[in-house]
Design a protein that fits this description.
Distance between the termini: 111 Å
Oligomer: single chain
Number of strands: 36
Largest sheet: 6 strands, mixed
Radius of gyration: 55 Å
Length: 547
């Protein structure tokens, strides 16, 4: 069953006092800030005849049964109900598991009769507690409802026995309600219970009945953060009620702060429809408050008849400079040169001021083609004093272009110092470094090879007196070529693929038909030329294309 959110009112700021500390005990050390795992309701109802008007008293029994059914109609699922009645003796009733046995519980209550003759209250309390199994993780709500005083002869002894047993068995979430209908709470009960935490004595006017409520507050602990950096903190509480909606009151108990003249205030705003209520905390008078971490308690209470769980919420707060984190390299990295497939590592240590406790998330932003791991992972967490090994692996970086890797720190509880990026470069390969020189050498080699090949290849064929000679040199001396002394000192020069007369000695004529040729004249291809010395024919020469 869904519990209804409790109706709240805004509270004025309240400074803690010694009286507040006494009314708001610290949560049990075994379960600080914890909520009970389930609720156990134990009802001990007076069934003496006076409850139904015998002897002239108001008939209150029908209203008691209606209130019990109304109250438990909103009990959380998983609760158990133990129902006992008493008059001169204890009548142990059945136990009901909610919500499955809710109808059975209501039918049982409807059948109850008030026909007893005596009212042995303390005996019934003592015997009920003796038979009750211990359940430290349960919230045991023990409700006693009676319209009379204990008339057992051994009442004083029974009351003391019950109180001793209750002090031993009482769990961190247990409440005891001693409810008297139509009379004041007996003085001995008032005196016995006034110093027992989480107990209430309620007195209703004749014919009236208190409205019962159980208010559950979640969570059981609040961390207010660093109130030096943010003096005002707002936190949400989930407030759920069972039974009658009530107004809550809040006080803050902070002896550690008060010792230095400071104090914490709380303002509780009205609950919203979702069941959430915001609490605004403010730290005051901090002039002499030394830096450190502190604890306090938010004490919540309701009117008579309302049980608040937990009645005190643990508050954690800090008052100190901001936490500061810094990554320090073990040695200056400079620019890292990484060849393709090569890796290098850089080691850092996380340092911090006294308020830096971590953890701090570390991640890297790297260019494409560069693999980065942080302590072997894509990202990691560190605390001050931890080492960070950054491994960089060149997977496919461009050559001779500086790339940067930026390490980033994320500290939820503080700030981080600046961190210089890592610079990585892939050096040029041998070919990339010397390719201009290699290209020039290749061109020169090709030119030399072409020259050599050209020099070895004949640029023309010369047919001289029926013999064919290959012309290779730039200057061809016909005497050396043919071995004929008649052609001494006569030479040809290569001009591209043509032959020109280079030197014509005295007394020698070279003719193309009737035309007399001179130095530098071209010997046309496939045309016969005659060579005369002293007017006598000494040779015929024809130049042809070399194949």
């Amino acid at each position: 069953m869904t519990l209804r959110p409790v109706a709240l009112v805004a509270l004025a700021l309240i400074s803690p006092t010694a009286a507040a500390a006494s009314s708001c005990p610290a949560p049990a050390a075994s379960a600080p800030g914890q909520l009970p795992e389930h609720h156990r309701y134990v009802f001990l109802v007076d069934t003496s005849g006076s409850m139904r008007g015998v002897g002239g008293t108001p008939n209150i029994f029908g209203r008691v049964k209606s209130e019990l059914k109304r109250f438990l109609a909103s009990a959380p699922d998983g609760s158990t109900v133990q129902f006992n009645t008493f008059d001169a003796r204890l009548n142990s009733g059945p136990t009901f598991d909610l919500p499955d046995e809710r109808q059975a519980f209501q039918a049982y209550v409807d059948r109850l009769q008030a026909n007893g003759q005596s009212t042995h209250v303390y005996r019934a309390l003592d015997e009920t507690l003796t038979a009750l199994p211990e359940a430290q993780q349960s919230a045991t709500m023990l409700y006693l409802l009676t319209d009379g005083k204990d008339n057992d002869q051994a009442s004083a002894t029974r009351l003391q026995s019950f109180l001793q047993r209750y002090q031993v068995q009482r769990g961190p979430h247990d409440w005891l309600y001693y409810i008297t209908l139509g009379l004041q709470t007996p003085a001995d009960v008032q005196q016995a219970l006034k110093n027992v935490p989480r107990t209430q004595t309620l007195s209703a006017a004749p014919g009236q009945l208190p409205r019962l409520s159980v208010i559950t507050i979640q969570p059981g602990q609040l961390n207010l953060g660093n109130l030096r950096l943010t003096p005002v903190a707002q936190r949400d509480l989930n407030v759920i009620t069972q039974g009658t909606s009530v107004n809550l009151q809040a006080q803050v108990v902070s002896p550690d702060l008060e010792r230095h003249g400071a104090y914490l205030t709380a303002r509780l705003n009205a609950a919203r429809s979702s069941g959430l209520s915001s609490v605004r905390f403010s730290l005051k008078n901090t002039e002499t408050l030394p830096p450190g971490t502190y604890r306090a308690r938010l004490c919540l209470s309701g009117p008579d008849g309302a049980a608040v769980q937990p009645g005190a919420l643990e508050l954690k707060l800090a008052y100190h400079p901001a936490a500061h984190y810094q990554l320090e390299a073990q040695k200056a990295a400079g620019t890292l040169e990484l060849k393709r497939g090569e890796e290098q590592s850089v080691t850092y240590t996380l340092t911090g001021n006294p308020w830096a406790t971590g953890p701090v998330a570390v991640e890297a932003q790297a260019p494409e083609g560069l693999g980065v791991t942080l302590n072997g992972q894509p990202q990691t967490q560190l605390r001050p004093g931890d080492r960070l090994q950054v491994i960089l692996r060149n997977q496919a970086l461009p050559s001779d272009r500086a790339q940067q890797v930026q390490l980033r720190l994320r500290a939820p509880d503080g700030e981080t110092g600046p961190l210089a990026p890592l610079t990585v470069i892939q050096p040029k390969t041998f070919l990339e470094r010397f390719w201009p020189l290699l290209m020039l050498a290749a061109l020169l080699g090709a030119a030399a090879l072409l020259w050599w090949w050209t020099s070895r290849r004949p640029w023309a064929l010369a047919q001289i007196d029926g013999q064919t000679f290959k012309l290779r040199s730039e200057i061809v001396h016909l005497e050396q070529l043919t071995g004929s002394p008649d052609l001494r000192h006569l030479s040809l020069r290569r001009r591209n693929t043509q032959g020109r007369l280079h030197k014509i000695p005295e007394g020698v004529e070279v003719r193309a038909g009737r035309d007399l040729l001179e130095t530098n004249d071209v010997l046309e291809r496939n045309e016969e030329h005659t060579i005369l010395r002293d007017g006598q024919l000494v040779a015929r020469i024809t130049l042809k294309q070399a194949r």
